[in-house]
Amino acid sequence: MAWFSNMVVLLLVAGTIWLARAASRSRYWRESARELWRRRRLALIVIGVFVVIALLDSISWVGGARDGDNLAAFQARSIIDRIFQPETFKEASYSAPLAKVAFYGGKPLTYPGAHLLGTDILGRDVVYRALKGVRVALLIGAFTSLVVIPIALLFGVSAGYFGRRIDDGVFFAMTVLASVPSLLLLIALIMALGKGTVQVCIALGVTGWVHFCRIARGETLKLREADFVQASRALGVSDAKIIFRHILPNIAHLIIITFALTFTGLVLSETILSYLGIGVEGSWGQMIDQARNELSRAPIIWWNLAGASILLFVLVLAVNTVADAMRDIADPRTRREGQ
Amino acid sequence: MAAYLVRRLVYGAFTVLGVLLLLFVLFFTVTDPDDIARKAVGDRAKAEVYVQWKKNHGYDRPLFVNSEHGVADTKRYTDTLLFEHFRRMLTFDFGRSDADGTPIAKRLREGAGPSLSLTVPLFVLGLLVGVVVSLFVAFFRETYIDRSMLVVCMLAMSIAGLLYIIGGQFLVGTLLRWFPISGFDPDPAVTARFLALPVLVGLVSGFGADVRLYRTVFIEEMNRDYVRTARAKGAGDARIMVRHVLRNALIPILTNVVLAIPFLFTGALLLESFFGIPGLGSLTVEAIQSNDFATLRTMVFLGALLFIAGQLLTDISYALADPRVRLS
């Protein structure tokens, strides 16, 4: 699996650079990007840091383990794993943030004062676990959407552009999927497909597909009647060329905004799935779910819950504010002064 | 007009059939009855137990074609899981739970009351609070009150629902001890104390998104010409906001809200499960945890059916109100 995730990272980075270069050729995109950067610098930097952490956690290889550490020697470990060395950097059980002694019993710790957010019930470092969750969150929210968007565009745009039978079929599929309440649809899909990371991602992808497809279809329907599309058709431009030159660039901004909103929606619904016991392994939702009874312990244990929730909150907030700004930039009617 | 209604109804019926087909694909082909039976009786059960379980729960038919019957016999196609699934769902004959064998219809009847006792107050209060706060905020638009409220909404929207519940239980239930942490009682006077906390948590968790949405609607209305006319004729601010803006903005808000009404019946999954309210949300959570596919299918079907019915009613009432459709 190590080579696979390494390849995916490579592809993603290459794809992003290619897209950025393609977009920077257009004045509209250059100005929008500059405006976004001017308005939401902090949020964009935060998202960037999360992406870098996720990428560092996705590049992994075998070897380089310390002597005597038999298990780790044969496992591919990511850069984050290599920084934290979780095989040795752990305690027996709970310890408070920066504590020098164990939480229960008061024995001295192996690494006194080194656990920034303490350790969980199995003695694992909370900062390490929370950082591992970054990759899972981006996998759930971003990677799933990235895989789904081309499929949804294919269906949505062709339904809106060609109409007739294709539209009837796609619209019916969308109606059926959208008429099942989204959480129930997610649950039904996961229960049918079985528990597991890939299955949850497929289920989230199907629910996300409906959003993207609806937006793509609706906008294409509007654009199809626009003067510039009619004009190119009258000039004899082929359908494929009209779609790539005129339709897709004009729905791109909506797809990006929907992407950001779907991202937060997916990451937040994963926490519910984790509570129901059908979440993704190693997600923040699972950390929160495992920690939910720790608040009622007599000396209260808060750091597990805090570690996962703070990162979840910061990521979702950053994406939400960026999505908000993108909407304002794309639609000048709602543009607010100041900010 | 009649043609529109008929077309709309037929499309609604086809959507219901589509949902049933989706459920069949998911729960009879993706996970087939063999998987369901194996999960229910365990891997080590004897073959007879396994076959008997399938027979008891009606999973012992073939999927599409029953070759026990002759080619000319319609039973060849009706005595199958596909046909039975459609027939039972459409006649509301939901059968028994896969987990403990209780009739699902009975569980639904028992759960609807507790669910409604949570979701109805939550819905009414949520609408009230959302409209009042956003009307207030919209009145002070582009001032620091508006801006700080938008920031609060954004922060509130970025917190996971699970955290609201955990935090609410901890803060109000454990630290302040205002309300019991969880529980339910059929007696309305007693259960009000139990329901206070889940309703409060539900209100807070829905607050951000609601206020933002309603605020946008109000501000859009406030930019209309009739507001300027009202101001020109000398109407006061309060009168303009309540008599003119609120009244007109209620139309888009209500259409948004009407679509949420069907889901009052299906209950709130997380709130019910966390606060021990024995409603339909809890039923769904239990069904997930005990691999009770029969109950799960029923809940998904009912949720979709209510949604389709709600949408149909909205469309029809729109059509009745809109002269362009009514007179065509």
Describe this protein's structure.
The complex is a heterodimer of chains A (339) and B (328). Chain A is mainly alpha-helical and 339 residues long. Chain A folds into two domains: 89 residues, no CATH class; 209 residues, MetI-like fold, CATH 1.10.3720.10. Chain A contains 13 helices and two strands. A two-stranded antiparallel ribbon of chain A has the order 1-2. Chain A is elongated, with a radius of gyration of 23 Å. Chain B has 328 residues and is an all-alpha fold. Chain B folds into two domains: 89 residues, no CATH class; 209 residues, MetI-like fold, CATH 1.10.3720.10. Chain B is 75% helix and 0% strand. Chain B is built from 16 helices and no strands. In chain B, helix 14 runs antiparallel to helix 15. Chain B is flat, with a radius of gyration of 25 Å. The N and C termini of chain B lie close together (6 Å). At the A-B interface, helix 7, helix 8, helix 11, helix 12 and helix 13 of A face helix 1, helix 7, helix 8, helix 13 and helix 14 of B.
Please mark out the parts of chain A with pLDDT under 50 across 5 or more consecutive residues, or reply none: 335-339
- The oligomeric state of the chains shown is heterodimer
Q: Could you spell the SSE succession of chain A in H and E letters?
A: HHHEHEHHHHHHHHH
- Overall average pLDDT of chain B: 81
Share of residues in strands of chain B: under 5%
Number of helices of chain B: 16
Name given to the CATH homologous superfamily of the largest domain in chain A: MetI-like
How far the N terminus sits from the C terminus of chain A, by CA atoms, comes to 45 Å
Shape type of chain B? flat
Query: Largest sheet of chain A at a glance?
Result: 2 strands, antiparallel
Number of strands of chain A: 2
The CATH superfamily of the largest domain in chain B is known as MetI-like
Coarse shape of chain A:
elongated
Unreliable segments of 5+ consecutive residues of chain B: none
* CATH fold descriptor of the largest domain in chain B: MetI-like fold
Number of helices in the DSSP assignment of chain A:
13
Structural class of chain B: mainly alpha
State the helicity of chain B in percent bands.
over 70%
Give helix and strand order of chain B, one letter per element, not per position.
HHHHHHHHHHHHHHHH
CATH class of the largest domain in chain A: Mainly Alpha
